[in-house]
């Protein structure tokens, strides 16, 4: 295919030849700024269609073909422009066809109006999809015979999308009770889609979507506070069961840690093997949340497992965290063809040779079969791609399996761990999947948050827990709609970007607007006076922009539902720690402050002997500064818990602080 980069050369040639543009992009909507290069179906379409001489001839004769790819576009300014444009066209595809994905395959007029589009097209008609050759023929015919209809419908679609997605609100107040109604409605809708057999919300393919678990946990916490423990118990059980099923399933990498992108079947068994950073950061946080509620080390060990994986395989030389690992890899050194999951799957013979005397135990535990184990669902392997191969999955409880083999659970787990380490050593010698080493700030933020929280929450693990945790421009000036409310996802400086969108959907990655409300609420609780009021006003104005969404489609915005309720809480709890930094005592008290699950809590630590720090608090919250000066003791760390304009008596030991903060969700339900 004669590919052009995105730019005036291609547009001019399309106008000159009077032919439509075909745009192929592997830029991900959820990686707005830098995309990612681990798109499985992008690779498949590249091989099946773009390397086919017949397809290339049709494209070259009748279209101007543009490839929006990081491998082609190196200019940063142009790269950002291309990504914004691709986002617009993906929004168009999602709106018209009810879904989207990558690769993005869209046909444009020479003046860049969309004509029609889709995602992956097989080369010939199959899988219930029109083949790419068929699509090319029909677009070419329509351009000749129905051009006016095509162009006008594309222009109309963009106009409608612009109106729908650039919503604003003249009101700065939410209706009374809407946050609580949206929260409960979202939880109710999720509960109705709960899979009683395998956990999770909805049917296959199953995506982790951690924001759903966050909504259910938050709603359970609020129900307890409202005196409805039985209702809270139901929601909590759904989250616990879902996280257990995911951790035991093949979507979880039992050998190397972390989670794959999604499960193709309903039982979390056979995954699409790609690994994304945004999943790891969010899932680690959810498992940490549940550990802080249950104190069950099962959940803390999964969180550690995720963070171990990031430290070992995804960390850059300067502390940056890379964005993704591909699903495909070569089956052996020197092989030219890559296969999905090749790095992660095993034959029973391979496993027996590696784990030796413990083969029977290991194979029973992980459902290993000589003919392959991808047979738990008709959706697990419909095309027999994994015939004779095994994806590790735990189908029985560890206690039951240890009893079957007549040994204590501790010994049983030690054997499993030893076997997994052997598999890890062998697997590390296989050709590795492609590492996408781009550094995406928003995804790093999700991961860094989980590391920071883990450093405090995991100090509450029982001492006997067995694990191996290695020690190895502003958001407002550019993006805030100061009159209409909410945050755009682009600065709005580039006229070639047809839409300036305010996103609200909490999907694989939480929307920027949902996260912004939570951040604004936190900031408002840390500072005082007009600045605090302004943060809260911006948060409420933002939510009014999405009032209709909260009222009618709460399930689509689970994190925003939580954020709305956080804003409505009359007084957020503040935990103020006063003492020297750094110190062992401060770390101990920080662990206590974060030990229990409470999203409506802000922890502030301040060292009054640090002049610069004290000046910051004197300027931004004089009450905090005064509290610090009045309660400072050089030999210890003092904690105060404040809410509703009242502070507790100061305490100076971990146990007393934990008692002050304890409102145990698990015991309440």
TrEMBL record:
Residue ranges of every copy of the Spermatogenesis-associated protein 20-like TRX domain listed in the record: 1-160
Top-level division of the source organism's lineage: Eukaryota
Short name of any one Pfam family annotated for the protein: Thioredox_DsbH
Assigned GO CC terms: chloroplast
Biological processes, Gene Ontology terms: carbohydrate metabolic process
SUPFAM superfamilies on file: Six-hairpin glycosidases, Thioredoxin-like
Name the UniProt record assigns to this protein: Spermatogenesis-associated protein 20-like TRX domain-containing protein
Species of the source: Escallonia herrerae
């Amino acid at each position: 295919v004669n590919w052009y980069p995105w730019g005036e050369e291609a547009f001019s040639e399309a106008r000159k030849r009077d032919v439509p543009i075909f745009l192929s992009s592997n830029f991900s909507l959820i990686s707005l700024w830098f995309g990612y290069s681990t798109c499985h179906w992008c690779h498949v379409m590249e091989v099946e269609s773009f390397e086919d001489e017949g397809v290339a001839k049709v494209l070259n004769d009748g279209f101007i073909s543009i490839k929006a790819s990081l491998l082609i576009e190196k200019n940063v300014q142009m790269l950002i422009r291309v990504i914004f444009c691709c986002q617009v066209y993906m929004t168009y595809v999602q709106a018209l066809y009810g879904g989207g994905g990558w690769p993005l395959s869209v046909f444009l007029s020479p003046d860049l109006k969309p004509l029609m589009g889709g995602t992956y097209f097989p080369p010939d008609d199959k899988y219930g999809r029109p083949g790419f050759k068929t699509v090319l023929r029909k677009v070419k015919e329509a351009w000749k015979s129905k051009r006016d209809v095509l162009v006008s419908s594309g222009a109309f679609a963009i106009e409608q999308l612009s109106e729908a997605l650039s919503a604003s609100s003249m009101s700065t107040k939410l209706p009374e009770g809407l946050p609580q109604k949206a929260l409960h409605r979202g939880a109710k809708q999720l509960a109705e889609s709960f899979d009683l057999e395998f956990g999770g919300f909805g049917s296959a393919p199953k995506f982790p979507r951690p924001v759903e678990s966050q909504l259910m946990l938050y709603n359970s916490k609020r129900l307890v506070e409202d005196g409805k423990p039985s209702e809270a118990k139901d929601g909590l059980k759904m989250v616990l069961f879902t996280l257990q099923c995911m951790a035991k399933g093949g979507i979880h990498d039992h050998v190397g840690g972390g989670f794959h992108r999604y499960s193709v079947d309903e039982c979390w068994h056979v995954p699409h093997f790609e690994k994304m950073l945004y999943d790891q950061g969010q899932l680690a946080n959810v498992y940490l949340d549940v550990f802080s509620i249950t104190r069950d080390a099962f959940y803390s060990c999964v969180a550690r497992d995720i963070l171990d994986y990031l430290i070992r395989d995804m960390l850059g030389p300067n502390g940056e965290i890379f964005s993704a690992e591909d699903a495909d890899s070569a089956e052996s050194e020197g092989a030219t063809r890559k296969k999905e999951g090749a790095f992660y799957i095993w034959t029973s013979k391979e496993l027996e040779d590696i784990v030796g005397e413990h083969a029977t135990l290991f194979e029973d535990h992980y459902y290993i079969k000589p003919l392959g184990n991808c047979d738990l669902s008709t959706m697990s392997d419909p095309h027999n791609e994994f015939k004779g191969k095994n994806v590790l999955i735990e189908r029985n409880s560890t206690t039951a399996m240890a009893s079957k083999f007549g040994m204590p659970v501790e010994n049983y787990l030690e054997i499993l761990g030893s076997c997994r380490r052997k598999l890890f050593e062998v697997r590390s010698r296989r050709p590795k999947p492609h590492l996408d080493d781009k550094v995406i700030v928003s995804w790093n933020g999700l991961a860094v948050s989980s590391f920071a929280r883990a450093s405090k929450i995991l100090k509450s693990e029982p001492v006997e827990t067995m694990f191996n945790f290695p020690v190895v421009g502003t958001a407002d000036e550019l993006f805030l709609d100061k009159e209409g409310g909410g945050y755009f996802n682009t600065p709005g400086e580039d006229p070639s970007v047809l839409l300036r969108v305010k996103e609200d959907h909490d999907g694989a990655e939480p929307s920027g607007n949902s996260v912004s409300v939570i951040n604004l609420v936190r900031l408002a609780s840390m500072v005082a006076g007009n600045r605090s009021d302004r943060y809260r006003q911006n948060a409420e104005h933002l939510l009014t922009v999405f009032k209709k969404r909260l009222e009618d489609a709460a399930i689509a915005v689970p994190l925003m539902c939580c954020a709305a309720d956080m804003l409505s809480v009359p007084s957020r709890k503040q935990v103020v720690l006063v003492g020297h930094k750094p110190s062992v005592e401060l770390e101990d008290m920080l662990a206590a402050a974060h030990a229990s699950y409470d999203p409506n809590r802000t922890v502030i630590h301040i060292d009054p002997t640090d002049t610069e720090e004290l000046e910051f608090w004197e300027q931004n919250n004089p009450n905090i500064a005064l509290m610090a000066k009045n309660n400072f003791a050089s030999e210890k760390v003092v904690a105060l818990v404040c809410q509703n304009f009242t502070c507790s008596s100061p305490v100076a030991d971990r146990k007393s602080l934990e008692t002050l903060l304890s409102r145990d969700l698990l015991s309440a339900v």
